[in-house]
Amino acid sequence: MNSDTLRSTISITLVDAAGACDRTVPTTVRVRGNCGRSCRHSCHVPARTLGRGRGDFSAGAAYADGMSENPATPSNPDPDDLTAALSTHTDYGVEKLEEADAAADPVTQFRAWLAEAAEREVYEPNAMVVGTVDPDGAPSVRTVLLRGVDERGFEFYTDYTSRKGRALLATPGISAVFPWYSLHRQVILYGEARPVEQQTSDDYFANRPRGAQVAAWASDQSQPIDGREGLERKVREAEERFEGVETVPRPERWGGFRIVPHRVEFWQGRTSRLHDRLVYTRDASGEWALGRLQP
Ligand SMILES: Cc1cc2nc3c(=O)[nH]c(=O)nc-3n(C[C@H](O)[C@H](O)[C@H](O)COP(=O)(O)O)c2cc1C
Q1: 192 in helix, strand or coil?
Q2: Ligand 1 nearest atom to the CA of residue 158, by list position
Q3: In terms of domains, do 168 and 217 share one?
Q4: Is residue 64's pLDDT more than 90?
Q5: Is 142 near ligand 1, meaning CB less than 6 Å away?
């Protein structure tokens, strides 16, 4: 399909949160979340409006008034122009989270939202950003994948000798956020992380792909290494070690942590930044109380 065909078959309308900069453009315009030089608002284009995503609209030679005649393409973005990236003012819409609709406990509420995140095609809905505190007091964060959740807590797997592993074994205090931006939602956990039972780690490890099992042996997570080749050599050594061995055993240094929360916040974005923030707090008897925070 050439650009003329594209231009004649599709047009889209950009509308910002306040409806202030409506305009229709041919799709040969690269949609960058900003309607052009003449408008100082940042216009948000919901992903669902764009079908398969912004990249689909990158080709072509015709540009709307006010747009650059040689815009950066998605594969070659202009790092000197972060206007669109830094100035979005997305309106967080009409969904709400009210006390009457919240479950009696945070695990039930979380399971409902996680199922919805998967159903609504959040990318990696079980990814959470986990914050820990090193033995010297330095905070650090990274993403891990949630692998289990029940009334005991939230499980993830890692190398106990990694930076986060050492941090948690010394200081179990932990916080984690599930950033479900496309739903205008986040869930934040506050609690303590404890290693899961060895059998639980064994069972989980046994179900991993063999490549990941071998990698767990090969990689001393978070330790420096001299180049990619050094890592690949360690993988070859691990592969040789387990050649002909049907079941790769779990390395002792690798296993799960279970985050046992004492506080869980469910955040639902609302119009004009008047978001809903419902917080479950566990009392001394283990009962959950529900409260609300100002946005
Ligand atoms: C989407 C995603 C999922 C990840 N899942 C895990 C995981 O489940 N476990 C893990 O140890 N690292 C995971 N990682 C890698 C970590 O973010 C991190 O690089 C690694 O655990 C080392 O962190 P540390 O040096 O702070 O201990 C993931 C990274 C991404 C981007």
Answers
A1: strand
A2: 11
A3: yes
A4: no
A5: yes
Burial (Cβ within 10 Å: 0-12, 13-18, ≥19) of residue 235:
middle
Residue with the smallest CA separation from ligand 1 atom 24 is: 163
Closest among 129, 127, 261 to 190, alpha carbons compared: 261
Confidence grade of residue 25 (pLDDT, cut at 50, 70, 90): very low
- The last residue of one of the domains, among 39, 74, 91, is 91
Is the CB of 131 within 6 Å of ligand 1? no
The string of pLDDT tens digits covering residues 158-176 is 999 999 999 999 999 999 9
pLDDT of 31 higher than 80: no
With the most atoms of ligand 1 within 8 angstroms of its CB, the residue from 158, 169, 254 to mutate is 158
Name the domain count of the chain: 2
The residues with which 192 forms a beta bridge, in sequence order, are 173, 260
Q: Where are the alpha helices (DSSP H) in the chain?
A: 3-9, 83-86, 106-119, 163-170, 198-206, 210-218, 227-241
Residue 61 has pLDDT above 50, yes or no: no
Name the DSSP class of 73: B
Instruction: Check whether residue 17 and residue 75 sit in a common domain.
Output: yes
pLDDT of residue 45: 32
Transcribe 255-283 into DSSP letters. EEEEEEEEEEEEEE--GGG--EEEEEEE-
Are 248 and 213 a contacting pair, CB within 8 Å? yes
**Structural domain that includes position 138:** 99-292
Catalytic residue list: 273
Sign of the four-CA dihedral 49, 54, 59, 60: positive
Higher per-residue pLDDT: 196 or 15: 196
Cα 19 to Cα 39: distance, rounded to the nearest angstrom: 12
How many angstroms separate the alpha carbon of residue 128 from the centre of ligand 1? 10
